[in-house]
Amino acid sequence: MTAADGRTDTGGGTAGGRPHTGSGADGGGAAAHDTVAAVVRQWRAVRPDIDTGPMEIIGRINRCAALLQQAEDAPLRRVGLTRPEFDVLGTLRRTGHELTPGEIARETFSSGAAVTKRLKQLTERGLVERRGDARDRRVAHVRLTDAGRELVDGILPEQLSYESAVLSGLDGEGQGELAGLLGELLVQLEGRLGVPRG
């Protein structure tokens, strides 16, 4: 199936033959007028036999993520960074200590080859530096340079300010409820996929 954001296939997420009983796209309110609701109504018209409930959740998560990332990437583009490169810098900043490329790969859910490429680019820009392990030449340790730390610290407040503005339409209780539900979903998904937490 074509998902609500126009890019992701959600075919595996909708089971056949089970009527959707939640409020969903037809439940009124703002949700009844978003882009996902329109897609769901179209699928219900041509395939009334399937349950589109999962699409109403996954489609909205995907759509929100795509819209948020487009806007959040603007400050990164201004300083010539890609999102994956900033993820590497952010990981080094928030952990507060040196990491090996393998540790960075695990923290950023990236392949080793991708991290190697990003580290090369960031090293050339003087944002990170690598040192060899005294006991094992095959191991490298990566840390932020002063320039890298300054760049991360300069961009992060702008991103957080944008995120606060985006969420301002939800009151504190609504934000807390949404954060809790997403947290529960994330824990379940990480558990199924074997992703380490903590």
From TrEMBL:
Sequence ranges assigned to domain HTH marR-type in this UniProt record: 54-187
SUPFAM superfamilies in alphabetical order: Winged helix' DNA-binding domain
Pfam families in UniProt: MarR_2 (PF12802)
PROSITE patterns: HTH_MARR_2
SMART domains listed in its UniProt record: HTH_MARR
Region listing for Disordered, in residue ranges: 1-30
A single GO molecular function term of this UniProt record: DNA-binding transcription factor activity
Keywords for this protein: DNA-binding, Transcription, Transcription regulation
Residue ranges of coiled coil: none
Top-level division of the source organism's lineage: Bacteria
Name used for this protein in its record: Transcriptional regulator
Naturally occurring in which organism (per UniProt): Streptomyces avermitilis
